[in-house]
Amino acid sequence: MSEPVTVVGGGLAGCECAWQLARRGVPVVLREMRPQRSTPAHKTGRLAELVCSNSLRSDDPLHASGLLKREMEAFGSLIVAAARRSAVPAGSALAVDRERFAADVTATLEATPGLEIRRDEVRDLPAGDAVLATGPLTSEALAASLEELLGGEHLYFYDAIAPIVDGDSLDHSLLYWASRYGKGGDDYLNVPLEREEYLAFHQAVVEAEVLPLHDFEQNLFFEGCLPIEELARRGVDTLRFGPMKPVGLTAPDGSRGYAVVQLRRESLAHDQLNLVGFQSRMKWGEQKRVLGLIPGFAGARFVRLGQIHRNTFINSPRHLDRFYRLKSRPQLRLAGQITGVEGYLESAATGLASALYLALERRGGGAEALPDTTALGALARHLIDSGEENFQPANVNYGLFPELPRRLPRKQRRQAHAERAGADLAAWAERQDLKLVPAAPEAVASVAAESR
Ligand SMILES: Cc1cc2nc3c(=O)[nH]c(=O)nc-3n(C[C@H](O)[C@H](O)[C@H](O)COP(=O)(O)OP(=O)(O)OC[C@H]3O[C@@H](n4cnc5c(N)ncnc54)[C@H](O)[C@@H]3O)c2cc1C
Fold first, then answer.
1. Tens digits of per-residue pLDDT, 318-344?
2. I need a labelling partner for 301 at 20 to 30 A (CA). Which of 152, 153, 310, 359 fits?
């Protein structure tokens, strides 16, 4: 039997990576520090815990993240399969019941042959073939070891998480269920605000006390996940054109709000609701006071309030190659958010790709890089070909893909991207002698070796 690969971190990337390796006949030891040692954001000891939103973004096959899901499914992704098994209604997005999702991934991996799970903190970089997937909240000791290997260099920025409210504590006479533009049924609970209500809310957000940042931490927020107070400070209408935009939403009485807060179900029980886009670093007492100004929220009970968090990632254009190997130590690969991809799905996708490459290498003959024209390849392209100077994390989007041979209207462009990606992925898989077979949920018992 070949030497096991050490996968460090049982989050989205590490779980997908371990699963892919094991089902391709490569033995794995997956090391996760929780529950002995937790991070500032995780709450449980489960693998693949989602720390903030419960959404894996759009499931539209023509959307870049919908395309990425389909590519992952073609390789039998555990994360996408578990997400589908624990899905909750969310319009065109794939959102999950987080408890079920994490329990599913944990149980599946525990039952996977060739995969050992060890619960301990890894403090030093592991020897031999290894994949580091310790995420944005990598423990300090391991981060220090990595920093040392990379020559004392360490990148980070700050992100903030959205509050969750108990749906039963809201005054539903002021709210209505609907999806934007009617896409996806009644999946969101909407709170319309009149102009005066919006202006008072905006003022309260601007004036609320926030947790202080150190000087060197200024301007480090990721543009796609800005806290509401940052947005509010940019101008009186910024929230109304951002997370509180009213377009495409009409109340049952035919009225349209001046602004709208959208809430999305957190669990199949429908009782917990996530305030979409309401990430915040306001002090907790302030959050309760300010959010209490939203119509229907006077008696709101919050299951979780917004938070600020660190996000650790390396300068991938400088340190990684196309196969997720560290240039200075090729036996060590990185996957997940620590590479500078952003998001649950993207993290899992890099776990999948790094495992594919490692499994192909173990088979002998090396691997060819995934085509840049596929969603999986485009993510790696972002990590490797972005300039070193201003490297920033990114979600998957068509802007990361190589241009199409000719200009097309937007809708046709997405179609053309998806078709080109599908054809190129199939051809790549054939050249690697890999079967594109989605894993059935019940495949756990027979995961043995799918070596080709
Ligand atoms: C507070 C917060 C909010 C976020 N909100 C969102 C969101 O709403 N939507 C979204 O798509 N993304 C969000 N992200 C980003 C999110 O973290 C990633 O999308 C995704 O979880 C990253 O996957 P990962 O596998 O790289 O890391 P993680 O899922 O964080 O997994 C890393 C794992 O490694 C473990 N670990 C760390 N150090 C060690 C060690 N030394 N030894 C052993 N185990 C270790 C951790 O316990 C963890 O289980 C958020 C991140 C944070 C921190």
1. 999 999 999 999 999 999 999 999 899
2. 310
State both tokens at 4. Answer: 């096991």
Q: How far apart are CA 393 and CA 213, in angstroms?
A: 21
User: Is ligand 1 within 6 A of the CB of residue 136?
Assistant: yes
Q: Average pLDDT of 435-449?
A: 46
Distance 11 CA to ligand 1 centre (A): 6
How far is residue 31's CA from residue 29's CA, in Å, rounded to a whole number? Answer: 6
347 Cβ below 6 A of ligand 1: yes
Contact residues for 292 (Cβ-Cβ < 8 A; gap 6+): 298, 300
The domain spans of the chain are 5-154+314-446, 160-310
pTM for the full predicted model:
0.78
Question: What single-letter amino acid sits at 419?
Answer: E
210-246 pLDDT, tens digit each: 987 654 444 455 566 688 999 999 999 999 999 999 9
pLDDT digit string, tens, across residues 265-324: 876 556 789 999 998 989 989 999 999 999 999 999 988 888 767 778 999 999 999 999
Query: 428 with 421: CB under 8 angstroms?
Result: no
The per-residue pLDDT for 443 is 35
CA of 375 from ligand 1 middle (Å) equals 21
Distance of CA 136 to the CA centre of its chain: 11
37 or 151, which is more confident? 37
**pLDDT tens-place string over residues 243-282:** 999 999 999 999 899 999 999 987 655 678 999 999 898 9
* Ligand 1 centre distance from Cα of residue 428 (Å): 30
227 lines ligand 1 (CB under 6 A): no
Phi-psi region of 114 (alpha: psi -120 to 50; beta: other; left: phi over 0): left
The finding on whether 126 has its CB within 6 A of some atom of ligand 1 is: no
CA of 353 from ligand 1 middle (Å) equals: 18
DSSP string computed for 9-63 = --SHHHHHHHHHHHHBT--EEEEE-TTTS--SS--SS-TT---S--EEEE--TTS
Cα 114 to ligand 1 centroid, rounded to whole Å: 24
CATH of 5-154+314-446, one of 3.50.50.60, 3.90.1580.10, 3.30.465.10, 3.30.70.2190: 3.50.50.60
CATH value of 160-310 in 3.90.1150.180, 3.30.70.141, 1.20.120.530, 2.40.30.260: 2.40.30.260
